[in-house]
Every structure is written in structure tokens, then in C-alpha cells.
Amino acid sequence: MLPQILPSVTNPYLGAFFLGLTYGLTYCTFACAPYLVAYIGGAQKGLVRGIHATLIFGLGRITTYALLGGLAGILGGLLYSYDLKRYAGIAFGVVIIVIGIGIFVKRRSLTCGNMDRDKLWPVSRHLPHNIDVGAFAMGTALGLMPCAPLVAVLLYSAALFSPLQSAVLASLFGLGTMVSPLLLVGGLSGWLSGLIRDETPDYRGWMSGICGGILILMGASMAWGCL
Fold this sequence. Notes:
Blueprint (H helix, E strand, L loop, with lengths): L1 H4 L6 H13 L2 H17 L3 H29 L6 H24 L4 E2 L2 E2 L1 H4 L12 H11 L4 H13 L2 H16 L3 H18 L4 H23 L1
Antiparallel strand pairs: 1-2
Helix pairs in contact: 2-9, 3-5, 3-10, 3-11, 4-7, 4-8, 4-9, 4-10, 5-7, 5-11, 8-9
């Protein structure tokens, strides 16, 4: 299947990466940007932390892709039943709702222009400081809804490769999607929200509340659409 999609690439691992790169430069950015912009804007992270959150979001997707790749090598086509896609959409919607509620409810915990992550995500106090729990959870949940190119990679690998090799192919696809304008979107969102946070501190709570509400609505729409 990969040879038909990328006929000039003979190495399946390079093919998976370049397919992810191509997809990341196009549809993937538009599909993921609304969630990331609302999350980064609500948390008011600033430029550097906005890019960092985008990378952690991508890492979450790669983690899920690797797991799906391994399962594809074991289960094959059974992994892509309609019910699984439906439940994955519901799960993603629920995760987005929880993240949105966390930002909305804790919007008042902004101190010195930064969201207290231990108050926002209590579990994060037990994790390394550079782990953005919300971004990672969002990326992991979104990865449960594989796009058409990823499904092509997984079906191809399920037929010809071992579970470990399938996981590697899926991970390379995810790595390719990370090299995308989404990093720019995350950075700009962080910069703009940080500017608002620093220049208009009286509106920090309002901004977080609005962004949290948007996440709740998007998550509810996704979950409802899959019911």
C-alpha cells in the first residue's frame, strides 16, 4: 500500500516518515490546530512553552501510534472496526472536555502570569517538570483516531511486518507529522497568549475561561458526533 502512495520511495521506513511529513504539512495542521490553540491560549504559556507543549502533544500522538502499530501487527484488520473508531472519537471528546474543564475551573490560579500546573493537573507534581500532562493527554487521545494515511501505513505493516516493525513504522509516520507548521502555530499561540497575560493581567482569567469553554464545546461536539 505504501508503494502505491509513495511510488518513488522503496524503503518502507522512509516511506512512512515522508508520508507523515507530507500529511503534517497539510491536513494534520488544520485538524490539530484548533485544539492546540485553545489549550495553549488557555494555559497562557508564552512562546517557548507553547512550542514545548506542541512537541509534547506530538510525542503523545507518536506514543499512541506506536501502540496502534504493535496492535496492527497482532490483530491486523480487526483493529479498524467501525465501533473502535467510534469509541476512540468518544474517548477523545471526553479527554478534551476534561482538559477544558481543568483550564476553565482553575483559571483563577494564574499567578505571576503563569498557570500553576500542580493545581491544574495534580498528577503532574509526581512527573518531571518538562512533562506537559494536558498536551500529552490530548495528543495521546487524538492518536486513537488514526487518519487515512496512518491506516494505510498500519494495514501495510500488518500484512508484511512484525508487531515491533509495525510500531516503528507508525512511530516514524508520527515523527514526520511533527515536522509541520503546527510548531509555528503553537509558538505563535503561546507568544500571543503570553503577551496578553503580561500586558493585560486583568484579562488573564477571562482568556483562560474562554479557551477552556471552547475546549469543552469542541470535546462535547466530538463525543456527541460519535454517539
